[in-house]
Amino acid sequence: MTAVRIAPSILSADFAKLGEEVRAIDEAGADYIHIDVMDGHFVPNLTIGPKVVKALRPHSKKIFDVHLMIAPVDQYIQEFADAGADIISFHPEAGAHAHRTVQMIKGCGKKAGLALNPATPTDVLDHLIDDLDLILVMTVNPGFGGQKFIPLLNKIKDVADRIKATGRKIDLQVDGGITPETAKHAVSHGANLLVAGTAVFKDGPSGYQKNIKALRGE
Ligand code: DX5
Ligand code: ZN
């Protein structure tokens, strides 16, 4: 079994010192830096745009995993790619042509992820999975940190089985309400990459390393 990787969501960081926070989670052992982009339209919250991603880029060499909760999405992909995103994930509900969006992301030389809301059926993957590098299963309705984990364990397993059937390496990321306890369930059902905001940032910088380890089950 491959070791589980942790992607702290900077949504729960101190926004007054984001660069410092990114350096702190990098040093504390984060594998990816998860960046939640919200537009106040696709989800009822506003966060950050490509300018902030660009400003954060020099603070870490780790993978910038950019989760776009915006609609429309296509017109912003190039900007996020130029800002330094490594993986760009979007929701299929963000536009009419998910296949085109995947091709746009790949055309920018970036890895493409598809994010599934709790109510989004997994069959949206049927004709897209062969082009994806990451599948994000949301275990909260997107928009806010600090929500309770929705136990979509059969769905995680279903996605894991679909990934296995491709024979390709695709990250199975779970995002929302991840704690050391819910992490165990997500991983035992096939997740290999966990996003966590509250559970990483809750105690301030002195707790980041301990919190990341706890999510790995160490
Ligand atoms: C929710 C975001 C998540 C969120 C996770 O819309 O996609 O990445 O920040 O936060 P926690 O871990 O607090 O549920
Ligand atoms: Zn996210």
Question: What labels would you give this structure?
Answer:
alpha/beta, TIM Barrel, eight-stranded parallel β-sheet, 33% helix, binds D-xylitol-5-phosphate
- The CATH H-level homologous superfamily: Aldolase class I
Q: What percent of the residues sit in helical stretches (DSSP H or I)?
A: 25-40%
The description of the largest β-sheet is: 8 strands, parallel
Q: Please tell me how large the radius of gyration is.
A: 16 Å
The side-by-side strand order for the widest beta sheet comes to 1-8-7-6-5-4-3-2
Known CATH architecture = Alpha-Beta Barrel
Nearest-integer average pLDDT: 97
First and last CA, distance: 15 Å
Description:
With 218 residues, this protein is an alpha/beta fold. The chain contains eight helices and eight strands; from the N terminus they run βαβαβαβαββαβαβαα. Strands 1-8-7-6-5-4-3-2 form an eight-stranded parallel β-sheet. The protein starts with a strand and ends with a helix. The protein binds D-xylitol-5-phosphate and zinc ion.
